[in-house]
């Protein structure tokens, strides 16, 4: 018979391509992605830092508002009792009515301030609920995240501030956009190698190797426009970083000056409070001997109230200044793991 032999084969192709040069476009894209990630992280930390600062400020405000209202309620009750005694004495002609009127006027000043504080307290309660989802009942005194003694040390860590990190990350993004835009003006070089196996036995194996060069000579000005925009963005980012740098240092230094002044003033006011409290005790003890009058006692009580009220206001301001420093430096967010 006839012996028919069919020979069949399978052809195979293998091609390898390797980028040799692209004018820095690939590196720019990688760096750009990393820079965007850094920028997003810095934005998240900055936002978390701000929210924590706003929440902390609300807690501080409502605490000291409540303390001042408690002080006013207690002192107003005491002054009302003393003025009632004076009025009874005036009926018998022992005290001139002008003295009582002067005391009442001072008491009205306290009530006017109290009305304003009550309105501020109600408004702050709304903000408090927004941050903590509860009413400000049985609050504990807000603690200091940073001691007064460590303030200057913390200010030296200003380079870790989230707002500065964000500006640096934005600058890196802008620089890589310029590099990416510049790479469009450069050629691309790609190495290619290939091999093809034969379909049939006996056919030759084809091999190829070469380098592909690509360059765009004209694109209607698109590359120029992109580069111009990238350079403008870079200049803006550089200016923003410089401005942020100067603003941050200026704010921290000025806040530290305010804080030191506040600490000195509080020390002096603390001594005045002790003197005023001593005057109240003296005026009370001398009433029975006739060495002092109810008018003297009321004046001493009002002076004592004014000093204590002012001290609470200064404590709140001191707390706010420390909060501002830990917020600007980023210590607040770092302590809360933002």
Plain-language structure description:
With 338 residues, the protein is mostly helical. It is built from seven helices and three strands. A three-stranded antiparallel beta sheet has the order 1-2-3, with no helix packed on it. The N and C termini lie far apart (88 Å).
Mean pLDDT: 82
Note the overall shape.
Answer: rod-shaped
Largest sheet: 3 strands, antiparallel
Q: What Rg is obtained from the alpha carbons, in whole angstroms?
A: 38 Å
Helix-strand category:
mainly alpha
* Contiguous helical run count: 7
Low-confidence stretches: none
The percentage helix is 55-70%
First-residue to last-residue Cα separation: 88 Å
SSE arrangement, N to C: EHHHHEEHHH
> Approximately what portion of the residues adopt beta-strand conformation?
5-15%
How are the strands of the biggest sheet laid out side by side?
1-2-3
By DSSP, the count of extended strands is 3
Describe the SSE topology:
Layout: E1 13-21, H1 25-91, H2 97-132, H3 151-155, H4 162-183, E2 188-196, E3 206-214, H5 222-285, H6 294-329, H7 331-335
Antiparallel strand pairs: 1-2, 2-3
List keywords for this structure.
mainly alpha, 3 strands, 8% strand, rod-shaped
Describe what is shown at a glance.
The chain has 338 residues and is mainly α. It has helices spanning 25-91, 97-132, 151-155, 162-183, 222-285, 294-329, 331-335, and strands at residues 13-21, 188-196, 206-214.
């Amino acid at each position: 018979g006839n012996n028919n032999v069919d020979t069949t084969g399978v052809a195979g192709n293998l091609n390898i391509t390797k980028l040799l040069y692209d004018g820095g476009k690939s590196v720019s894209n990688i760096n750009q992605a990393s820079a965007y990630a850094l920028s997003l992280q810095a934005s998240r930390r900055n936002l978390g830092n701000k929210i924590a600062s706003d929440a902390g400020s609300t807690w501080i405000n409502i605490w000291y508002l409540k303390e001042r209202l408690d002080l006013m309620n207690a002192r107003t009750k005491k002054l009302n009792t003393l003025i009632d005694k004076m009025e009874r004495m005036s009926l018998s002609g022992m005290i001139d009515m002008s003295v009582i009127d002067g005391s009442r006027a001072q008491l009205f000043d306290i009530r006017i301030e109290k009305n304003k504080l009550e309105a501020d307290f109600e408004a702050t309660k709304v903000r408090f609920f927004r941050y903590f989802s509860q009413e400000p009942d049985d609050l504990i005194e807000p603690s200091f995240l940073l001691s007064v003694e460590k303030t200057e040390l913390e200010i030296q860590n200003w380079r870790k501030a989230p707002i500065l990190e964000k500006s640096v990350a934005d600058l890196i993004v802008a620089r890589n956009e310029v590099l990416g835009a510049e790479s469009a003006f450069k050629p691309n070089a790609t190495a290619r190698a290939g091999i093809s196996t034969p379909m049939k036995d006996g056919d030759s194996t084809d091999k190829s190797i070469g380098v592909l060069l690509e360059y765009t000579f004209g694109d209607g000005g698109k590359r120029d426009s992109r580069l111009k925009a990238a350079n403008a963005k870079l200049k803006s980012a550089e200016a923003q970083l410089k401005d942020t740098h100067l603003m941050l240092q200026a704010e921290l230094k000025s806040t530290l000056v305010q804080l030191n002044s506040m600490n000195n003033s509080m020390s002096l006011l603390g001594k005045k409070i002790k003197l005023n409290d001593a005057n109240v005790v003296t005026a009370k003890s001398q009433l029975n001997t006739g060495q002092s009058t109810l008018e003297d006692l009321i004046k001493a009580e009002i002076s004592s109230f004014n000093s204590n009220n002012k001290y609470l206001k200064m404590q709140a301001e001191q707390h706010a200044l420390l909060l501002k420093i830990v917020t600007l430096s980023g210590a607040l967010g770092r302590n809360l793991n933002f």
